[in-house]
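User: Reviewer 2 asked us to show a designed sequence for the structure in our supplementary figure. I'm pasting the structure tokens here. Could you produce the per-position amino acids so we can include them in the response letter?
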């Protein structure tokens, strides 16, 4: 007999692939060109499915459907509470299908199933519910202007939103994008990342099941320079929300210039994680491991520059290396696995190049540094010490399981060095001194600062970057503003 715990520790089987087409105007269709592209299982480097490859023609069809749905008012003028109800229904359906979606996510992306189950999917559901609750709470102000007038503001949906997302948290990125857009009454066209289209398409099926009117949600998988660029340039798209690399954002900004689209960007980082000697050492070590190695290091807010106060440097490094070595690499569908493969060959190659560069520039590799296994894009958890601020591994985003440890002596010194970057997405500080913690929190130029924790996300807490890490904020009330236009109405009372 198989006991419950034995069952829980067994690998789950590969998922059934239900949907590989484009979602346009409430229907599942092939690309007009008839072309498809392969999506791979990064753990085995084998094909999972052929997915319809949308291009400019399909984007145009999807935008037309979204525009028609927007102008019809079926969604944008629906009673706000009913809009919220549909969003709650979608969240419920995600919850009912959590296991299937978690397996699909891990299969296509390579992330450990334990993370999909315990982190990605619960955060998706929470985000959809959080924004469902906002649908009937968006409101304007009455303003006491001069003269005999009645003046008030309205928050109106921005229109058709184009949403371009990356592959590191496919479903969660959909929730971050759809939640505020739908709550505000926008219609949308989503372009998932070419590496991970499958879970987004399944979510599209659930949206139809939930009862969203046709054309409100459109999904067009395809490549960035074709489908993505067409969405950015389309004159009937009012706003682009993009998450990805800062270099792609630069292209998007230029492409969006002729139509003066509203843009929000959530980009990369090189986040400082600052460990003071007076911290709770074991908590700091555990948080530092999680802050960098979670999701195979494929987090825009990964704590990749670990500044450690000299006095505890050796003790910290010893404990950290032990933890890095204990990470369990393997099949993402095995619940015991804590680290899966990188998403694709390109990421895998880039990470190994950075590791080599780190060694060449004089950093000391304490553990890892190589490919793991013979197939799949696995990289060993890698820790470098003796890293200096000028080295490439301390300046550039690696987006993999590679940690750089940099010693420091003084508070002001570490603040200056933490800020010596073009990025500004996140930071963390570990200390028992409350004053020091807040001094760091106020001085580091980053959109999020964690004190004695890392990667604590909540749908209600805004997230986004200073400097080249982004424009605008997602999540929370701030995230809604991206999807509304503010209208001022003034009436004479005479
Ligand atoms: P990564 O290198 O991590 O894949 P990217 O910024 O290249 O990050 O990709 C994030 C998303 O942006 C993906 O959906 C990708 O297809 C899309 N993308 C890439 N290039 C462009 C582009 N020129 N215009 C619009 N979208 C793009």
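Assistant: Here is a per-position design you can include in the supplement:
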């Amino acid at each position: 007999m198989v006991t419950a715990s034995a069952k829980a520790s067994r690998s789950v089987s590969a998922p059934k692939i239900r949907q590989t087409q484009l979602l346009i105007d409430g229907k599942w269709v092939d690309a007009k060109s008839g072309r498809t592209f392969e999506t791979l299982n990064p753990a085995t480097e084998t094909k999972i499915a052929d997915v319809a490859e949308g291009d400019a023609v399909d984007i145009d069809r999807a935008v037309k459907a979204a525009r028609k749905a927007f102008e019809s008012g079926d969604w944008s003028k629906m009673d706000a509470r009913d809009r919220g109800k549909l969003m709650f229904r979608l969240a419920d359906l995600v919850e009912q299908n959590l296991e299937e979606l978690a397996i699909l996510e891990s299969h296509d992306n390579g992330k450990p199933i334990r993370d999909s189950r315990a982190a990605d999917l619960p955060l998706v559901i929470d985000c959809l519910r959080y924004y469902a609750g906002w649908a009937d709470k968006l409101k304007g102000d009455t303003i006491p202007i001069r003269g005999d007038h009645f003046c008030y503001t309205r928050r109106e949906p921005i229109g058709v939103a184009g949403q371009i997302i990356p592959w590191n948290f496919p479903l969660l990125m959909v929730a971050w994008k759809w939640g505020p857009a739908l709550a505000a009454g926008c219609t949308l066209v989503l372009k998932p990342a070419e590496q991970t289209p499958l879970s987004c398409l399944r979510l599209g099926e659930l949206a139809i099941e939930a009862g969203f009117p046709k054309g409100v949600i459109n999904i067009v998988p395809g490549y960035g320079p074709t489908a993505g660029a067409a969405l950015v340039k389309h004159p009937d798209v009012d706003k682009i929300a993009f998450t990805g690399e800062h270099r792609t954002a630069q292209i998007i900004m230029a492409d969006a210039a002729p139509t003066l689209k509203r843009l929000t960007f959530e980009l990369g980082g090189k986040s400082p994680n600052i460990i003071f000697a007076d911290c709770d050492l074991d908590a700091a070590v555990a948080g530092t491991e999680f802050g960098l190695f979670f999701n195979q290091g494929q987090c825009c807010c990964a704590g990749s520059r670990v500044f450690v106060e000299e006095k505890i440097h050796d003790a910290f490094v010893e404990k950290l290396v032990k933890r890095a070595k204990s990470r369990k690499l393997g099949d993402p569908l095995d619940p015991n696995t804590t680290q899966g493969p990188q998403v694709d060959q390109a990421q895998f190659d880039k990470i190994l190049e950075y590791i080599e560069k780190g060694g060449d520039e004089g950093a000391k590799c304490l553990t890892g540094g190589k490919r793991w296994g013979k197939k799949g894009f696995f990289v060993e958890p890698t820790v470098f010490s003796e890293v200096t601020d000028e080295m490439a591994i301390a300046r550039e985003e690696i987006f993999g399981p590679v940690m750089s440890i940099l010693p420091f002596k003084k508070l002001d010194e570490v603040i200056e060095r933490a800020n010596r970057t073009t990025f500004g997405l996140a930071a963390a500080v570990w200390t028992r001194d409350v004053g020091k913690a807040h001094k760091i929190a106020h001085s580091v130029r980053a959109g999020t600062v964690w004190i004695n924790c890392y990667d604590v996300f909540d749908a209600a807490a805004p997230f986004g970057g200073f400097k080249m890490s982004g424009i605008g904020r997602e999540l929370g009330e701030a995230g809604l503003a991206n999807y509304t236009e503010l209208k001022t109405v003034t009436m004479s009372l005479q």
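For the response letter, you might also mention the following. The radius of gyration is 23 Å. Confidence is low (pLDDT under 50) at residues 1-6.
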